[in-house]
Amino acid sequence: MATNRPAAEPKAQWNIEEINTLLDYLLENSSEAGDGYNFKLSTFNAAAGVLAKAQLLSAGPPKTGKRCRTKWTTVCDLSDMY
């Protein structure tokens, strides 16, 4: 039986320049963060705009606010390990 599932979105691929640009943007806008450095989606959407304008994409789909939020969460989780 065939299912009509939507195709999975391609996985985001981040290069070091994109990660650094995202982190720099969030650091510069840290006043927008709430408790525990949780940013609103609007902040991540703005960060995605900065990434697009910087033309740093080397692979994968363009970064969106949701993808920026996911990367931020991953970076924060990794920093808890050290």
Q: Could you walk me through the main structural features you see in this protein, from its secondary elements to its overall organization?
A:
Helices cover 51% and strands 0% of the residues. The protein has helices at 16-28, 41-54, 65-79. It has one domain (16-31, 38-79). The mean pLDDT is 90. The longest helix is centred in the last third of the chain and has 15 residues, at 65-79. It is globular and about 50 Å long. The chain has 82 residues and is mostly helical. Helix 1 crosses helix 2 and helix 2 packs across helix 3.
Quick tags:
mainly alpha, globular, 82 residues, 0% strand
| Estimated share of beta-strand residues | under 5%
| Largest β-sheet summary | none
End-to-end CA span: 48 Å
Q: How many structurally independent domains?
A: 1
* Poorly predicted sequence stretches spanning 5 or more consecutive residues: none
Task: Give me the number of helical elements.
Answer: 3
Would you count the extended β strands for me? 0
**Over all CA atoms, what is the radius of gyration?**
14 Å
Lay out the secondary structure.
Layout lengths: L15 H13 L12 H14 L10 H15 L3
Concise account of the structure shown:
The chain has 82 residues and is an all-alpha fold. 51% of the residues lie in helices and 0% in strands. It is globular and about 50 Å long.
